[in-house]
Design brief:
Blueprint: H1 6-17, H2 22-34, H3 42-59, H4 72-92, H5 98-105, H6 113-164, H7 194-207, H8 212-219
Helix pairs in contact: 2-3, 7-8
Length: about 220
């Protein structure tokens, strides 16, 4: 493409690519009719619908007189388009925002789309904080329940070992070993069946986890 001036270049570009047919307008309007938030955040949802509004505005022109930007008809038409965009944005929001949506619709006059966007963003942040608080509370309650269950299981296991070895029926006696006695494997008589002795010592060591009063005796 060659032109003598920049103006000629833009005129040629407009002639080739500036033509808008009904098909483009149809697809943009169709997308605007079916767009909804679904799993998107408010920011992502607003970004998508704002892109569609911008595409539509480049395809259509609002008719007005030669009064310029102060034209009453231009101002009224612009306000009508802005209200339509506001309704499209509110319609596509999830039902989680129906309370604040109802409050916005009751306002007179209706706020502009930027003000509504900020209100919805604040509502989304508050919902996120509430959800985090509930998750932390549930996690704390879950940890407490697990701790209680673990303590109960340990107590039941200790009680089972006590009754299994017949310890409740045993009598309290003083140890036959002198204080600070050191046992040697080569001295003394061997037990005929050391299995029961080993099991008993193992059970006593296990009980030291739930019975601190047995810890010193079992280890020393």
């Amino acid at each position: 493409m060659f032109s003598a001036t920049a103006r000629d270049v833009w005129l040629q570009v407009e002639k080739r690519f500036g033509k808008v047919d009904g098909t483009k307008i149809f697809w943009v309007l169709r997308d605007l009719c079916v767009i909804s938030q679904n799993n998107l955040s408010v920011v992502d949802y607003f970004t998508q619908i704002k892109r569609m509004w911008d595409d539509y505005n480049t395809m259509v022109t609002i008719p007005h007189c030669n009064c310029g930007l102060t034209c009453a008809s231009l101002i009224a038409a612009t306000k009508l388009i802005q209200d339509q965009q506001l309704m499209q944005f509110l319609v596509g929001l999830n039902d989680d925002y129906k309370v604040i949506r109802g409050s916005i619709l009751m306002m007179k006059p209706l706020p502009n789309i930027d003000q509504v966007y900020q209100l919805i963003i604040q509502e989304e942040k508050q919902r996120s904080l509430s959800a985090m608080t509930q998750i932390n509370s549930s996690a704390a309650a879950f940890n407490v329940n697990n701790s209680m269950i673990s303590q109960d299981c340990s107590a039941m296991a200790a009680q089972h070992k006590v009754y299994k070895d017949g310890l409740p029926a045993s009598s309290i006696v003083s140890t036959p070993l002198p204080l600070n006695c050191i046992l040697e494997p080569e001295k003394g008589e061997f037990l005929s069946d050391p299995t029961y002795y080993r099991a008993l010592v193992g059970n006593i060591i296990f009980l030291t986890h739930t019975r601190p009063d047995l810890s010193f005796t079992a280890r020393h």
